[in-house]
Specification:
Strand order of the largest sheet: 4-3-2-1-10-11
Shape: globular
Number of helices: 7
Oligomer: single chain
Largest sheet: 6 strands, mixed
CATH topology: Purple Acid Phosphatase, chain A, domain 2
CATH architecture: 4-Layer Sandwich
Number of domains: 1
Strand content: 25-35%
Structural class: alpha/beta
């Protein structure tokens, strides 16, 4: 049996090839899989569970079919889909996770994050993150009509792209000291996250102990999946046609 991890799929109506690739992934991996963890930014934007966009219902139905095959699905919020709620999770047969959680991955405690909270050198983003993750801000946004929320999501996406184009590459990557602190507090020697779109496996030293940080890739030109079994971890990818 295996457990799968993906992040930053960024599903959107304007990217049907990504949707097809994700559905193909579900169909290919349904046998022999016991759990699927989606670690944030599953959707390129999420404006509320009441959004009637056809893609949302289609994705929920595919996930539910995957879940009905006896596979546990776990969803974590990212910086693009932090408004994703319990209604969608129920429709998809999935369980919403907190923004950080330690799981027992075949005998090894493993910390799961989306990863944006590790980018502490990006001061402007950290301030923005604190704002949009507040219950008050989210309630205020969700009280607005759908069209107003669609407009807001487009504005935030454009603002993010504009700001990122002006930032140094290292600012948008994780802060090494923050990684060590977060893993130390959690008491783990393995961390899995996404967000940075820099897939890799990094060896670390935490208080004299060898540790590992595994970064999941984004689904753009390639699909990235971390496959875990009792004996090994494999970070793999294939081209999206």
């Amino acid at each position: 049996m295996r457990t799968l991890f993906v992040s930053d799929v960024h599903l959107h109506e304007s990217r049907p090839q990504i949707t097809r690739a994700f559905f193909d992934f579900l169909h290919t991996y349904k046998d022999g899989t016991e759990a699927l963890y989606i670690l944030g930014d599953f959707f390129d934007a999420w404006i509320g569970d009441d959004d009637d966009t056809a893609l949302n219902a289609e994705v929920a139905a595919e996930l539910k079919q995957f879940s009905d095959h006896g596979i546990k699905i776990y969803l974590m919020h990212g910086n693009r889909d932090f408004l994703l709620g319990e209604k969608f999770a129920a429709q998809a047969g999935a369980t919403l996770l907190p923004e950080n959680i330690v799981i027992d991955l075949y005998g090894q405690p493993t910390l799961l994050l989306h990863g944006d909270e590790l980018c502490t050198c990006d001061k402007d983003y950290i301030i923005f993150r604190q704002q949009v993750r507040s219950a008050q801000w989210q309630a205020q946004v969700l009280s607005q009509p759908l069209q107003a929320r669609r407009t807001l999501a487009a504005q935030l996406r454009e603002k993010s792209q504009a700001m990122n184009s002006l930032k140094a590459e290292d600012i948008m990557d994780v802060t090494p000291d923050e990684v060590i602190q977060v893993m130390s507090r959690a008491g783990v020697t393995r961390l899995i996250h996404g967000h940075t779109h820099r897939p890799a496996r990094h060896t670390l030293n935490i208080n004299g102990v060898t540790a590992e940080r595994i970064v999941l890739g984004d689904w753009h030109d390639s699909a990235w999946v971390l496959e875990a079994t009792a004996n090994q971890l494999t970070l793999t990818h294939w081209a999206i046609e």
